[in-house]
Design goal:
The chain is mainly alpha-helical. The protein has helices at residues 6-27, 56-70, 79-84, 86-98, 110-132, 144-147, 159-167, 199-213, 231-234, 236-243, 246-250, 256-264; strands at residues 149-152, 155-158, 217-220, 225-228, 268-271. Among the domains are: 56-193, no CATH class; 217-271, no CATH class. 47% of the residues lie in helices and 7% in strands. Strands 3-4-5 form a 3-stranded mixed beta sheet. Strands 1-2 form a two-stranded antiparallel ribbon.
């Protein structure tokens, strides 16, 4: 029988303990963690799920909520209200963010394109104002219509590009009464999104509200001038392409008395001075 002294016994025990500990460590590495066969351990890429992108139709509902809550019957905006509500400001940004998932080339009809781009323009404008608020006019922000941008599909668009390269190319001059340029001379902001199914009604209402309701077309008999909204000066060719002349375009909004006066006296064209003050609610 082999006799081991106490020192040998201690050395052997230490060796066995070391081997057991090493084996345990090897089996506890992340790649060998307990779990189902083939399952990736926590922390690896496949286990991280990106948040689902919001469908644009869902995003439009958020824009609808913002319009209903913060735009009054005059089309003026409660900018402080949106800015102070983190939840609603986030809703606005979420709607704008979902536009990146849209391929505008797949919009089926001209009305769908108009409604989509008008909603896009208006939401981005309001959000752009909020980034600089408080301001008394967007003209305080240098190049506002060029620096305020949005990503739609795989392209980036400034407000100026949306207006001049996209919307104006659709040959619908009434879009000028629909896009809000954040000033009191521009279109009133409709307190609902534009919708292809009722776009004709919405555009006709917006045009009448601005030209008649806000007297942006009238005959100044004393000065013998036909006074028009400044938009007829800036974008006159859009209205001429539609009706031949600016007068022909606005005739339906003039009274019989005004039309008779025009027949009797040759009139020159005049333009109403624009009011660039911010389209905010006064409280």
């Amino acid at each position: 029988m082999i006799n081991l002294d106490s020192k040998c016994i201690i050395v052997i025990a230490a060796i066995l303990l070391t081997l057991t500990f090493a084996d345990g460590c090897a089996n506890s590495k992340p790649g060998n963690a307990p779990g189902k066969q083939g399952e990736k351990p926590p922390g690896e890429e496949e286990r991280v799920q990106k948040p689902k992108k919001m469908d644009c139709a869902e995003g439009l509902k958020l824009w609808e909520e913002i319009l209903a809550k913060y735009v009054d019957e005059k089309g003026l905006v409660d900018y402080p209200g949106i800015k102070e509500s983190k939840e609603d400001a986030k809703k606005l940004r979420t709607y704008i963010g979902c536009l990146e998932a849209v391929d505008p080339e797949k919009l089926n009809s001209r009305k769908e394109k108009l409604a989509f781009w008008i909603n896009c323009y208006n939401a981005v404008t309001i959000n752009g104002v909020l980034q600089h608020y408080p301001v008394d006019t967007v003209k305080e922000v240098k190049d506002f219509w060029h620096i305020t941008v949005v990503r739609v599909g795989d392209k980036e668009y400034s407000l100026g590009t949306i207006e001049n390269s996209v919307l104006r190319s659709l040959a619908e001059p009434r879009m000028h009464w629909a896009i809000v340029r954040a000033s009191k001379s521009s279109a009133a902001l409709l307190n609902e999104p534009y919708d292809a199914s009722k776009l004709e009604e919405q555009l006709a209402g917006q045009e009448k509200e601005l030209l008649v309701g806000r007297k942006q077309v009238y005959v100044d008999k004393k000065r013998k001038k036909l006074m028009l909204s400044p938009f007829f000066y800036w974008y006159g060719e859009d209205f001429i392409k539609k009706s031949g002349t600016k007068l022909e375009y606005v005739k339906k909004y003039l009274s019989e008395e005004d039309l008779d006066f025009i027949e009797d006296y040759p009139l020159s064209m005049g333009y109403i001075k624009p009011d660039w003050s911010l389209n905010k609610q006064e409280k």
